[in-house]
Sequence to fold (306 residues):
Amino acid sequence: MPLKTLAEVLSKANAENYAVGAFNTNNLETTQAIIRGATAQNAPVIMQTSQGALSYAGFDYLVALAKTAAENAEVPVVLHLDHGTDLKIVKKAIDSGYSSVMFDGSHFPFEKNVELTKQIVKLAHAKGVSVEGELGTIGGAEDQISSRKIILTDPHKAKEFAQLTGVDALAIAIGTSHGAYKFTRAGQQIDIKRLTEIKKLTQMPLVLHGASIVIPELVEQIRKFGGMMQRGQGLSQNELRRAVNHGINKVNTDTDLRLAFTAALRQTIMTTPKEFDPRKLLAPSTQLMQKVVEDRIRLLGSAGKG
Fold:
């Protein structure tokens, strides 16, 4: 089926109180894992590319991959630009076939963030493209996105931002962080009180970035072969469920897919040293990433919502 917009899939999630998984891709294998996982769970899915992925693979290749995947899928698929900080890239995504873009102006002062986000919303909506904005910074670093300072989202500013810009979804800072090396304690805690107030005031789809969790059945494989394992636990599954129950409708996943890909690839190379066919070497990585996708979809409550 044709690509869906973020507004289309998140309006239903917002009304029915579940979250849609948003998974970052930069190659064929990850794209296949995302689509196969969503199809197996009959769930809507958001396929994201970062600016780093675009530098690596290029607009044409990634758009072609996503459109082909969507056209052959039996579940709703959104093609979304994740963390667009470069206005030129955001505008190019709008013109290149993306059905949704994120403009990340969170590093600007509030007024400047509103001004630039509003410009992107006007351009995007004119072409039927959805927009995700961001208010607050979550800290950590991942794929060219970094912020040492954590600024939690002010609920009243969130309401004002949403009203002034007209965004279709809002990414908020409520206690999580980007990246694999972010955890210095046993686990992250989401500010549920803050989340609840933001939801009450905005009544709109809310987005959670930095939502890495530990999947119990994959822990040992990732620890042994993944190369870089989180210190501590990240978010617990229960903590992520609580976030969804209190108003999160889109949850980003990138680091967990990278860890799964790397763990499976290293294990395959070590256990089959004579194999030289890239297709056979990469197949286990695709399979393990699919498991991560399916696990996340079930956790977010979007299984069966396709």
Q: What stands out?
A: Confidence is low (pLDDT under 50) at residues 140-146, 179-186.
